[in-house]
Amino acid sequence: MHDIKHNSKGLIPHGMSACAGCGLELLIRKVMDVLGRDTIIIIPPGCAASFSGFGKETAIKVPGFQGNLENTAASAAGVRAALNAKGNTHTTVLGFAGDGGTVDIGLQSLSGALERRDRIVYICYDNEAYMNTGIQASSSTPYLAKTTTTPAGKPTARKNLMQIAIAHDIPYAATASIYNIADLQRKVKKAKDTDGPSLIHVHTPCPTGWRYDPSKTIEVARTAVQTGCWLLYEYQNGKATINYRPKELLPVENYIKLQGRFKGLTDEQIQEMQKYVIEDFNKCIKRLESVA
Ligand SMILES: Cc1ncc(C[n+]2csc(CCOP(=O)(O)OP(=O)(O)O)c2C)c(N)n1
Ligand code: SF4
Ligand SMILES: [Mg+2]
Question: Which pTM does this prediction carry?
Fold first, then answer.
């Protein structure tokens, strides 16, 4: 038997089948370093399934299973209930799902778990499309991004997962980014220690779907925050904290020029996008400041 208090680093071995430069691979390693061995993980179909494995193989050194795309949170809630029935309150139950499995197909299941106040940690790794099945747009795909189902650029803005989660009045919800691992891991620790449901929404660049050089994953993630395309903040027991607020936002062009999925936008579209990003950023800051 492993001693669950020790040997919690390296729970995801190297030599995985994720693409080079995959943001998700970095994320899952860093999340598991914090959660440790005493964790049960539920992963739905999607790129993260390359970690939960195929057939008898798995690349995660903790128990878990691959569920369905639509019921990650319900599966996690069921595992939590079974552990509770056995008197086990120490094991962390983690639902680890993509944007498609969270904001689209699994949203009802997530809403149910948040409403029941099931003590689960739910992490949405957001690569902003259905990557595993060929880069189809999800409702988390940003405005004007090209995917195989939005070849001329997505005409609508993304759905706001954090606001949906917060509307359930859960004790802990945060955004995070893989360019700031210290901030991410602090949030994972808080989620682990939360007595009730917690959600972390992580911006997770994907070189294959976003079409950039794999060496630029961290640069892409950082530029998203510097341009206001992604904001780092958290809600804890109804109070909001903005974790990092750039003094001045960099032009959105700095972010989109790094990625092939925004290639070919007209000057007018880039201006449109800049306008949208600033408006959305200011709206979000105003909302957070009203509950700070
Ligand atoms: C109900 C259902 N519809 C479609 C699929 C096929 N499918 C498997 S993985 C996947 C993509 C999931 O996208 P996301 O959750 O964003 O994860 P990613 O692939 O981007 O990591 C889809 C559509 C499925 N497994 N179940
Ligand atoms: S398609 Fe994107 S998210 Fe999926 S394994 Fe490749 S880089 Fe990672
Ligand atoms: Mg996805």
Answer: 0.97
